[in-house]
Amino acid sequence: MKKVCNKCGDEKDCSEFHKDKQRKDGRKNECKVCIKARREGITTKECLSSIQHKNKLSSLGLKVCLLCLKEKSISEFGKNKTKKDGLKIYCKECKNQSTRDYYYKNKDSVSIKNKSYAQTLKGRQVQRNASRKHKANNVEKYKAKDAVNGAIKYKRLVKPSICSICGKDNARIEGHHWSYKRSDWLDVVWCCKQCHCDIHNDNIKDIFRRQNQSLLEYLRIIMK
Prior knowledge:
Layout (H helix, E strand, L loop, with lengths): L1 E3 L6 E3 L3 E3 L7 E5 H9 L3 H16 L2 E3 L6 E3 L3 E3 L7 E5 H14 L1 H12 L2 H17 L1 H15 L19 E5 L10 E5 H8 L3 H8 L3 H8 L2
Antiparallel strand pairs: 1-2, 3-4, 5-6, 7-8, 9-10
Helix pairs in contact: 1-2
């Protein structure tokens, strides 16, 4: 079944028109391309050209990130079932950076929200599933962790009460592995949870800013 668009005057298939229950034929008078062009403030020709370019990129397995505006492989985008192509509009790198920036700007409110969600039934189930998945994908990491716990239990390792990076006392101390090889399982840096998170998130600047440490001091610690 065909229909003529009131805006561009082209005859198109009915699937090219949004649904509208108020119309006799159940479709809007303007096609999807013309409506999209009007919303974005561009001409129908420019909008059509943009759609064709997107389709061409899609056929090549590429997509443009709307944050960094770079053409990247579709494997670098997360999944989103609500989108036509099934992918998010931002690449994983930009999304992760955006999420990280938001967290550090709103750390207290995010922490409260996460704790309240973790106490719900759904939150506990999500946490259990995530824990199982993480353990299955990081077998060597958990082996190294178990080796350190066993060494502490049988007094082959002594766990300090002070963070070796920032010097914080009476904090939760964790062992950071620089390598998960079997020979390096007991080679750990003892640090507080905050420093441990900053190391894994490559936020070395945050460690320096918090404790006024120099890069040389930090390198002395990690090269021990």
